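User: Run a structure prediction on this.
Assistant: Running it now.
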Amino acid sequence: MTVTRDSTTAAPASEAPGAPGRHVVFVILATAMLIFNMQFGMIAVALGPITDGLDAPLRWSGWVLTMFLLGMVIAQPIGGGLAERLGARTVFVGGLFMFTLGSVVCAIAPNVGVLILGRLIQGLAGGGLTPAAISLIGEVYGAGRTRAIGLYASMMPFGAVLGPVVGGVIIEFAGWRSTFAINAPIGALACLLAFLVLPPGARQPARPADLPGAALLAVFITAFIFALTELGRRVAPPDLRLIAGAIVLFAVALVLFVKQERRAEVPVVDLDLIVRPAFAAIYVLSLAFGMGWQGIVSIIPLYAQEGYGLSVAQSGTLSGPRGFVMVAFSAVSSMLLYRTGFRKPIATGLIGLGLIIGLISLGIREPQIGGIAVSDFWWLLIVVSSAGVFYGFAVPSLNNAGLDLAPDRIATLVGLRGMFHSLGGMVGIALAVLITSRGSSTEVGLQQAFATIGVLVILSAVCVLWVPELGAATKAAAERR
């Protein structure tokens, strides 16, 4: 009898003769993703200058953030499937190329419409990067993937936090367009290096892509965000006909999307991986973290500029320590994963993040701490850094939860989790812009938005009860190593 080795028992790709070491692969993937994630953080600082420079209202400037996330929402589940069929390296390099192209479009954008288009291209590119990278890490590390993926996940948000610091300095000296222009040479070099060094990744038989499903997904999400955007109009009353039309379009597209996914051979969103309570809970939690992290934290620089009068560079600097704190706590949490399990870190992180957002909404100025007056800058720095503690503590658990239930679908599961995280960011930004636009001032509106979303984030923690705990087999494998 002939015995064949399937994908679950195959040796790590890094063990093949002449293949790069797994740590080399890890460093290349992490570095490329760090550069990509820095872009999102840079835009968070640049939102004010972009609004002024292109003479665009806040409700449309917010689309510079949300369109990027929309691209990721659409592309992440597709990227996971493509990584399984075409090889993770192909998808990763292709994503880097698209990101570089989108950066060029953004750098030369003459108006906010073209800038939004460029951001969509960047988001579509990013949707394939994360599942492809984690698929490669899972392949080269084999049974040790849990810690490796946890460490990788702990490093990725660092780019989004380092971005505001670097972006603030760049904007002060060279303008917001330079935050995009610098990606052209860096992106070209990253594409070449990734193509030459990364292993190709395992492939599965080719299957047709679900393009109708992707289109319907984009339509119902865009219709929902547009309705929120129209509600935020301040110069004139919102057009109720447009809002009603957007809601009808949202409902119709959503129904058609569900029907399409049930009959598609290779659906954009595998509904079987969503309706199961364990997976559904993970996705709701990912959405909540997206609202609190990508959604709210991304507009804190605008709040610091509008509410506290900080400069662009100062508002960007607020995110620096948060990045170091987040990475440190993520690394510690990754090492303790086999002791803490998944539920406790996720619940602690979610509730803590919600409380921090609520604290920001109070608009406290120059508080007394231990009898010492603290300036607004240092107060915001302390509070924002505290958000990094809770987010970093939870991310490794959230990224690994559920993978033991379907170890042969890692790329797809990661793509879906990332999709819901990005979707949460979109909803958070759109909701914050809506509440802010209806407020008596930008400062007051942002405070009301923070309070609302902080409560929503905390309430979502109940879903932790359905999160599957760390499997016994995975624990045993870790102890043997």
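Residues 18-200+211-480 form a domain with the Growth Hormone; Chain: A; fold (CATH 1.20.1250.20).
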